[in-house]
């Protein structure tokens, strides 16, 4: 293995095999490299066959791409996971309480823990949601918490995805593929199952059904359509849950309910798992040009006659500026100390923080508060003097527009490369389901891995891949 | 079940059936061209006509010969009925109804598409043609097998079957429509070698030569062929067989409803008025007119199914 200064999840920092990987290592030593290479190719074929691809917009040829899959599992021990999952649960509980508060009394603002303008000037704040009580009291039913690891017990939350987290189909297909290719690995290691996710999801959604539901709740998945980049996932989830996959033009408001056009007329829907953004959900209430939504669905929602998962307006909780308040938010609503760490975040709007950021610019990552996708970002350690100077000027001109964070030393896990096992940086997105019956965290999640040596970018559009993520039973 | 899903299933299976039928027509055309002594390009006009694509071919200003005809039917993107276009369309519809079909069916369609895309990426050389056609028919057969073996017998299955048999009936009727004159008792001297080749063509285009031989042996003529392809309910591509299946599946869909759907009424009518007679009655009526009317009725039934089951609104 290459020597790395960072924490490797298989070899630690001192080249000593860590416990969760013992069973894997025994197996791996008995394996033949040529056979594993063949297996890696087999995996690609399996993925193509199941059609787990993402669409690339604006390309007629080769329009469907595979996200590279690495056959070496990432392994987390049972106790490690138990700690982590308690923290995730706590955070999701707090996020739901926070969103409820924001659209009702705003106690947290009154208590002076979050400045008023953080909410009122936030684009993700939906005035249409003020005073609305979602069925079951849940706002964000499906959450993805992005984590990175820096040491044996050190996990940091990088981002909370409270709107429409994607990627769960990869978690499921990755496991399915591994089970098909390496059944013997699963007999040696007791791995906690992820396959119950679709059933859990359906139960969790059904538990949030509105009061008007008669009999078994009718659940449907709303997709923008076949050309959406995540269409595979939408169809996959509908299939696995055994519910209808609908598009806006299949739906219509009939007698105060949202109903779908079936071969026998219109049938009301109780719970809609929507994979369409807020803005496109209802042309009468939001973007009037939207073809993807259902005219009038917000009125049905406000009347309490349909559950929309996730609720409109949940974006307020995954904003970058709000992120920096997450420790306060967790404490405020749960009365407990946060179990998961936030990456320390400097709010440049505050004079002390700004002074520190300006002094240490070369060591920090600076992000725009409302930016996304890496736009308007400065990575101090790799920036040139000129770039640093330019950013310094921007910061001084509009400090409130920026936050800054130290660069973290992300953990690595081995991938199967041409030279055998080689360490690469990873992150982790566990998937969480929230309903009045409780919060469920699927053991594992989606591990994204930067396949390029030394790279910290795990994004699939920039050379990132995925791995099966194991949580051991112990 | 969503109207949109019913529509997607109906067309997914129509396109799969059409892909197979087109592949079979190419195979037949090729075979006849090979066994012919004089002009090997002559037979391709009627073959394209049977596939309902002669007019479209003519519109693109290319010489009609064996090579261009095969390429047009096999892989032309401009031809919506080419094997490649049909398999692409079937797969696109399968994506649309992904949650309604089993994983096995989806994977089989997806594999059929990937195979076809690779096999038909370039013009197919004459010597590779039999192998390519065989591979395509095997991959679409796998979809049919998976459908049969893994799908629940519910509405979803009914719409899949409606698409299959509507397309198949249409295909059989169209082949008979193009070649009807060969089957007229007055046409030429019965039993000449030309007649034999022509009859063989029709039977092969419908994968009916084996069954026909089993049933009638050698020495049978146009009357028996007509009887076999139109009225024989044991022959899986005959009009009577296909219309029976349409009837069955519409009846399953109807189950429990109080009023009869217009599409079921139409199919009942088609069955009673056209397919419950003696073959001689067909000749008395006029074979060509008879087939023409059946084609019209099939078109109406397809449109009525769309309306009855809310495919679009």
From TrEMBL, chain A:
<feature type="domain" description="Circularly permuted ATP-grasp type 2">
    <location>
        <begin position="73"/>
        <end position="450"/>
    </location>
</feature>
<dbReference type="Pfam" id="PF14403">
    <property type="entry name" value="CP_ATPgrasp_2"/>
</dbReference>
<dbReference type="InterPro" id="IPR025841">
    <property type="entry name" value="CP_ATPgrasp_2"/>
</dbReference>
<protein>
    <submittedName>
        <fullName>Uncharacterized conserved protein, circularly permuted ATPgrasp superfamily</fullName>
    </submittedName>
</protein>
<dbReference type="InterPro" id="IPR051680">
    <property type="entry name" value="ATP-dep_Glu-Cys_Ligase-2"/>
</dbReference>
<dbReference type="InterPro" id="IPR016450">
    <property type="entry name" value="UCP005522"/>
</dbReference>
From TrEMBL, chain B:
<dbReference type="InterPro" id="IPR007296">
    <property type="entry name" value="DUF403"/>
</dbReference>
<dbReference type="InterPro" id="IPR051680">
    <property type="entry name" value="ATP-dep_Glu-Cys_Ligase-2"/>
</dbReference>
<dbReference type="Pfam" id="PF04168">
    <property type="entry name" value="Alpha-E"/>
</dbReference>
<feature type="domain" description="DUF403">
    <location>
        <begin position="1"/>
        <end position="309"/>
    </location>
</feature>
<protein>
    <submittedName>
        <fullName>Uncharacterized conserved protein, Alpha-E superfamily</fullName>
    </submittedName>
</protein>
